[in-house]
Amino acid sequence: MRTGAELAQAAVENNRGLAEELVERARRDGLQLVGENGLLAGLVKLVLEGALEAEMAEHLGYEKGEPAAAGPVNHRNGVGRKTVLSQVGPVTIDVPRDRAGTFEPQIVPKHARRVDGFSETIVSLYAKGLTTGEIQAHLAEVYDVDVSRDLVSRATSQVAQEMAAWRTRPLDRVYAVLLIDCIYIKIRDGAVANKPVYIAVGINLDGDRDVLGMWVGTGGEGAKQWMTWLTELRNRGVADVLIACCDGLKGLPDSVQQVWPQAEVQLCVVHLVRTSLRYAAKQHWAVIARDLREVYTAKTADEAEQRFTRFEDDWGERYPAVVDTWRRNWEHVIVFMRFPAPIRRVVYTTNMIESLNSRFRQATRRRGHFPDDDAALKVLYLVIRNPIKNRANVTGRTPAWKQAINSLAGYYGDRVTQN
């Protein structure tokens, strides 16, 4: 059986002459493009009715106008009229009926009041951060369609079900790299407050990057909360993580190693530099950042230690908090220095997530705040689900991965090669 799209295409081809006539008439009469009486609504009506007739012909086994086969067979029984919402506005169509009542159209299913694509338009606007009221106004202005808040809510509520399935989907057994970062979003919890949303991105052994999970925190997360979230990932199939790269979040490094005892935890160096600069006068930022770069680009841990000693001599007296920040985290700063350059490029920073965070902020900024945690997560999920074309995205294949995975196999042996 042909799909609805194939039937619609056939209807366009069969009615091309009528479509051209309709376009010419619209040009002559100065008709508007969208709205109930617009040109595009007429074309959509033409295509939908043609596709429905093609579906009915396939269902009955004979074309409209042809004699039905002899005997007690099913045949046409007039039409029923209904109005559906489309991406060009409301369209009134004639739906063919059969005497036996067994016809189940694909392109405009029974009881459907929206054509496929209209709900996607609503969801796309929601993903861009528009509120329900703004979506209503947009549809009224652009498509001349007056939709209810209930319809918008129903269209977006389907996303919640999809997101629930996404958040519980099975994951790969081994991830070469697990990156964890945080973004703050205004959410109402009694009062409106900035709440952290934690994002975990994994790079599997094929170099594929994917968002593995998202969780809304309270701002006071510790080891117990991290254990709950990381155990969730393990229960979904993640048996081993080679390297975890994170932002020094309280309790996270210890929790990672309890859930995956063999994992090595690397602090995001870029975030650590940013944290350090908070303790220094702005006039010294460029020099301090340059000197710290000399430390974390060292070829070996011993060389990094020597360079940091020089840094301490130069800046320790003026900015002891900067030195203390690095000393307290030194164990997790130099993890990536054990690895060859191909691995270092992948794990020394969580900046891979920055492009995603930028899109998160763009989608959430115009909303002001969200009524609850689920509403916020729903918008973030839509950002993940709908990658921007022609733009680097957090999901996809990691650049130069073949070189990195060969280095990982040489370093981790069976943990890589036997999976």
From TrEMBL:
Protein name (record): Mutator family transposase
Signal peptide: none
Pfam families per the UniProt record, alphabetical: Transposase_mut (PF00872)
Spans traversing the lipid bilayer: none
InterPro entries: Transposase_mutator
Organism listed in the record: Streptacidiphilus cavernicola
Family indicated by similarity: Belongs to the transposase mutator family.
NCBIfam families: transpos_IS256
